[in-house]
TrEMBL record:
It comes from the Bacteria. This is Winged helix-turn-helix domain-containing protein. Residues 253-328 form the HTH arsR-type domain. It comes from Actinomadura luzonensis. PANTHER family: ARSENICAL RESISTANCE OPERON REPRESSOR ARSR-RELATED, HTH-TYPE TRANSCRIPTIONAL REGULATOR KMTR.
């Protein structure tokens, strides 16, 4: 794990902007990452279930998925041309910018990708700017978006809007520095540098250009930026977990279906602060299993964990309580 260090000047702080909606092409990339998660995060399970309930959707995603698995693999790099700055204005603007990517840039970025993995045969004409191959890529990404994201856009937009409202309150209460300080782990504001837990070590010197913050529904844990520091600076950051639960996209499911029987039992058991050992005894499971379930629930924003001496104490969050009560779609603290 590395660190992205974003260096601000006074001019940069005056030019920080917050996007009012997620970037559709970044969201496309992040959904492919979610399919590769070793353990599927709880908050995204309704989305997974809704996709798999309609085979026609997954069939429409297939071509785009194959291309993305080659062009945006899990690892330290994928080409910036897949997520052009213009995408912040909508899918059409983003795809138009992708189609207009200069040949020299395509060749350079795909050449850099080739240093990490062997490219498929069709990557060569893409690197040469073949109009037909570029058009095919854009069409595949449009189809992928139509199947994987468009049906859930209302729920995604609602969750992102809730997160944006929180960020706006930070600005009103303490200015841009309060916004940066409030982004939370894995980001840390150490004026004049924003440190971000990242996939590689990297410095981004804004140099008066400012920074565009873009909230993301499908980004998880690690924010991302463009690899080329010469491009317009953006930072795509994950929204708070509680906002995802407020209006999880897809069909509703009972808690046991959503969490699994064991994790549902763990969440029910945490009426008050409970140690891992107490939880294991209460549910007749091993301490290692109890700890593992609590960790998954903590990552989903449903459980808080703190250390008390040698003991680890778990407590259900307000979000976890609301989910148990069946009110996760109502405003939460």
């Amino acid at each position: 794990m590395g660190t992205l260090r974003i260096h601000f000047t006074a001019d940069d702080l005056a030019r920080v902007t917050l996007a009012d909606r997620p970037d559709p092409l970044w969201e496309v990339i992040f959904t492919r990452f979610r399919f590769r998660d070793r353990v599927r995060p709880l908050a995204f399970r309704p989305w997974f279930a809704a996709l798999h309930a309609e085979p026609a959707r997954t069939a429409r995603m297939r071509r785009g998925a194959r291309l993305l698995d080659e062009l945006a693999p899990s690892g330290p790099y994928f080409p910036d041309f897949l997520t052009p700055y213009e995408g912040t204005h909508g899918l059409d603007h983003g795809l138009e910018a992708l189609l207009a990517t200069p040949k020299r840039r395509l060749a350079a970025e795909l050449g850099r990708l080739a240093r990490h993995r062997r490219p498929p045969g069709w990557a060569r004409p893409l690197a040469e700017g073949d109009p037909g191959v570029l058009a095919g890529l854009a069409a595949a990404l449009r189809d992928y978006h139509a199947a994987a994201l468009a049906p859930f856009q209302q729920a995604v937009d609602a969750a992102v809007a809730a997160d944006r409202d929180r960020r706006a309150r930070d600005v009103l209460g303490g200015g841009v520095e309060a916004l940066l300080a409030g982004l939370g782990p894995p980001m840390r504001w150490r004026p004049p540098v924003l440190e971000v837990g990242y996939v590689v070590d990297q410095d981004l010197v804004l140099g008066g250009r400012g920074l565009r913050l873009v909230p993301s529904y499908f980004c998880r844990r690690t924010p991302l930026s463009l690899a080329d520091p010469g491009l317009p600076p953006v930072l795509i950051y994950p929204i708070e977990q509680r906002h995802r639960w407020r209006a999880a996209p897809g069909r509703r499911a009972d808690l046991t279906t959503l969490l699994g029987a064991n994790r549902s039992a763990v969440l029910h058991a945490l009426d008050r602060g409970t140690t891992t050992t107490q939880l294991a005894r209460l549910l007749r499971i091993s301490p290692a299993t109890a700890s593992r379930h609590a960790t998954v629930l903590r990552e989903a924003g449903l459980v808080d964990t703190r250390r008390d001496g040698t003991a680890v104490v778990h407590t259900r969050t307000a979000l976890g309580t609301a989910l148990l009560a069946g009110h996760a779609d109502e405003p939460l603290p």
